[in-house]
Write a structure and sequence with these properties.
alpha/beta; Rossmann fold; 8 strands; 35% helix; globular
């Protein structure tokens, strides 16, 4: 039997094409009753997308940290909204390849998608993951011309710990000390370090942790959070610094949160508290509650409904254009 030589992200995109074909076929038949050619849909989607995997954006803790870029080919001139995607796994597990299919809805909205690797706890304890994702945001700023990124339309997203990283990356001030590690990526070292991270316009937060300290002690203590900090001194103060709730401010990015009210890994209260704080600060936000929903694992129908609302939210905030 022949063995595929496609790199994992490329295999994921191929699978995404087939998934898109299935969804498009179902939608088309429902709308006009006509048969639809899923093969044609898959071919056209694949033909219209470019993939660049395994780009090193940072070297830290003795390893090269990688990201993959998925983007519409376009006419070579139009600027693209861009979304950075961070995988979940409690900061202790997971990989970016497992979340490659999360790119698909955004590709269909016209985004360029950056799928990001970051250091896990077995490589470096907190705050390493946040330092890395802040550097990934700077990478977007440094490479905007090459990839046609529109730096006025940057979005972050992720699930669980990835949701936390999406929020933290968007909400922690660009001049915070946590971004100092990124100075090593300066193209030339002869001049002053310049933080070129764009301002994030919106966050799509899938049941992310919003109060990290809450997970280190008390009734909501979770082993993955304890493992991320290990025996670090001053871990409570550091956890507060890494918590999105500590960085809510007027003028911050718009936030769309999805959270199941029966989530046992990240308490639903984290989404509720974030919404309350954002409301108080006057920041546009939505909390989409999945009734009876756990830690992800939502049905296909629920996912479609959520992404429909996400798309409308991003249009409302000028990230993507309204349909003609």
């Amino acid at each position: 039997m022949a063995t595929s030589t496609l790199h994992t992200p490329l295999r994921a995109v191929a699978a995404a094409c087939l998934l898109a074909a299935a969804f498009t076929s179902t939608a088309s038949q429902a709308q006009d009753g006509a048969a639809y050619d899923p093969l044609r849909t898959a071919v056209l989607l694949g033909h219209g997308m470019a993939v660049e995997p395994n780009i090193t954006y940072l070297r830290a803790s003795g390893q090269d940290l990688k990201l993959d870029v998925y983007r519409p080919r376009g006419d070579g001139t139009a600027r693209l909204p861009v979304v950075l995607n961070f995988h979940g796994g409690g900061w202790v597990a997971g990989n970016r390849e497992s979340r490659a299919l999360a790119a698909l809805p955004y590709l269909q909205m016209g985004f360029a998608v950056i799928n990001v690797q970051y250091r896990l706890a077995n490589v470096a304890l907190a705050p390493a993951a946040v330092e890395d994702t802040l550097c990934a945001l700077q990478w977007v700023g440094r490479n905007a011309e090459r990839y046609r990124f529109d730096l006025d339309r940057v979005v972050t997203t992720g699930d669980s710990a990835g949701g936390h990283l999406a929020l933290a990356t968007a909400m922690i001030p660009g001049d915070a000390p946590l971004a100092n590690q990124c100075a090593s990526t300066e193209p030339t070292w002869s001049g002053p370090y310049q933080n070129v991270a764009p301002k994030v316009k919106a966050v799509v937060n899938w049941y992310g942790i919003t109060d990290v300290a809450d997970m280190l002690q008390g009734p909501n203590i979770r082993s993955y959070a304890v493992a991320w900090f290990g025996s670090l001194p001053g871990r409570t103060a550091l956890a507060k610094e890494l918590s999105p709730l500590s960085h809510v401010r007027a003028g911050g990015p718009a936030v769309f949160t999805i959270h199941g009210d029966a989530d046992t890994l990240v308490p639903y209260a984290h989404g509720v508290r974030l919404k309350s704080a954002l409301d108080k600060a006057g920041v546009s936000n939505v909390l989409h509650t999945v009734k009876g929903g756990g830690h992800g694992g939502f049905s296909a129908e629920q996912q479609v409904a959520i992404f429909s609302e996400v798309q409308a939210f991003l249009r409302q905030h000028g990230v993507i254009a309204a349909p003609r």
